[in-house]
Amino acid sequence: MRRSRVGSIRSPRVVVYKAEGCHLCERAGAQLAELRAELGFELVEVAIDGDPELESRYREVIPVVEIDGERVCTYYVQPEPFRRKLAAAQAAGKTRGL
Question: Fewer Cβ atoms within 10 Å of its own Cβ: the N or the C terminal residue of the chain?
Answer without folding.
Answer: C
